[in-house]
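Tokens in:
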């Protein structure tokens, strides 16, 4: 939203829709809480189906009432597709020209056995004008489906601008102030080991993972009596629930942190020796912070059963999907037990080699996800990713045909790059202007 206001300086921009805390801080009044859509998994969606259908109807009604020039749908592909389909039908019935429709975050067709350009074209081609992709290999897939697409860079890299004073050396690396965090939370200056737990942002994740995290922490404390747990959560009702649940652990060496800024979040990361995180954005943030990480994911048995039969990739965490191998330890579905998580975390705590290797892999992966340079990199060094072994499937992202993948400028200062949000905003405005001028002509 902030970027749209900057690039659309010739226009007065008004926003309406559904959004979370950051969008609300930027001036959006959300139609309803984003938590109502924070559902992931087959069984979990089924149990919430009536609420979701009601929210779809409310969103379509508000869209028709507002009649915007541009509709940007963000992730949440199931919800967004249904909103766009219903809205387009209403516009056609009313004989009114539909707005420019842009989907931000492409459907992960590459992750499913039956996914491909044909499926993408059939489902999304009729309802959107442009796709904004956060992975660089996705635009060719969209174009094969006759859907215009732009690679804008991964949104997690926005944090590098939010914490630019802490980003030194590699542009996609953030150094938080761990000492400041320890002082703020009364943890002293002694060299006590600390483990960071990130249970996610959805209520269903919290309910499943927090009890597992508690038992994991108790296992890790065996032989490490000074080990401290730092549970990082988000502001709002979910964060309040996490704070209350952790307080009920009745463990003296456990603190909850609800960062008010991105810098505070990275300060918390920097104070810790290892992290155990729910699969999602937090994993990518920990890569930026170069904190050794274990990925955790639990779901209903029905969700696991369906996922294992439809998935074309072996891993769940994005770093591992991109690398085609496990560069960040995963404990997912039935394998996500306190014993397994404690085993992975203990290995990272003990092995400097494993910690260093994960940091090196983080640099490679984040370079691959960086936005295009906004101006010539000049003499900056080009980074390349060498094939490390045979690809385990034709869909491995960093181990494909050519054996060497150019990943762009990895050692140039961040000032050479344009923020992903700015790249996205320019693409949105360009799409609108193209559609508007085409209708005028």
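Residues out:
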């Amino acid at each position: 939203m902030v970027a749209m206001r900057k690039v659309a300086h010739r226009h007065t921009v008004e926003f309406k829709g559904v959004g979370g805390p950051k969008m609300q801080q930027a001036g959006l009044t959300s139609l309803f809480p984003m938590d109502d859509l924070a559902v992931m998994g087959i069984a979990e969606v089924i149990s919430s189906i009536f609420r979701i259908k009601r929210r779809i109807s409310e969103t379509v009604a508000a869209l028709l009432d507002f009649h915007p020039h541009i509709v940007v749908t963000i992730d949440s592909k199931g919800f967004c597709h249904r909103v766009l389909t219903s809205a387009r039908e209403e516009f056609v019935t009313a004989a009114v020209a539909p707005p420019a429709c842009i989907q931000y975050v492409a459907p992960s067709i590459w992750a499913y056995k039956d996914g491909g350009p044909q499926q993408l074209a059939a489902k999304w081609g009729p309802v959107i004008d442009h796709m904004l992709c956060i992975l660089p290999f996705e635009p060719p897939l969209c174009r094969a489906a006759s859907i215009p697409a732009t690679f804008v860079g991964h949104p997690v890299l926005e944090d590098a601008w939010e914490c630019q004073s802490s980003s030194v050396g590699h542009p996609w690396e953030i150094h938080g102030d761990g000492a400041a965090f320890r002082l703020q939370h009364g943890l002293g200056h002694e060299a006590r080991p600390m483990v960071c737990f990130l249970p996610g942002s959805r209520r269903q994740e919290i309910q499943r993972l927090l009890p597992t995290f508690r038992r994991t922490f108790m296992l890790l404390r065996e032989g490490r009596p000074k080990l401290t747990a730092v549970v990082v959560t988000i502001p709002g009702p979910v964060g309040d629930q996490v704070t209350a649940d952790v307080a009920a652990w009745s463990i003296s060496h456990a603190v909850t942190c609800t960062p008010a800024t991105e810098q505070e979040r990275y300060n918390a990361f920097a104070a810790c020796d290892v992290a155990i995180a729910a699969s999602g954005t937090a994993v990518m943030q920990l890569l930026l912070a170069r904190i050794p990480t274990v990925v955790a994911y639990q779901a209903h048995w029905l969700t696991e059963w369906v996922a294992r039969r439809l998935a074309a990739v072996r891993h769940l965490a994005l770093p591992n999907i991109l690398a085609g191998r496990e560069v960040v330890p995963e404990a997912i579905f039935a394998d996500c037990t306190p014993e397994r998580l404690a085993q992975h975390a203990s290995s990272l705590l003990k092995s400097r080699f494993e910690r260093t290797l994960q940091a090196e892999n983080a640099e490679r992966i984040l370079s691959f996800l960086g936005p295009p340079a906004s101006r010539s990199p000049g003499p900056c060094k080009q980074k390349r990713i060498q094939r490390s072994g045979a690809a385990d499937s034709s869909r491995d992202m960093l181990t494909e045909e050519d054996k060497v993948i150019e990943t762009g400028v990895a050692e140039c200062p961040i000032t050479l790059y344009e923020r992903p949000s700015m790249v996205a905003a320019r693409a949105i405005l360009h799409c609108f202007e193209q559609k508007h001028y085409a209708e005028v002509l």
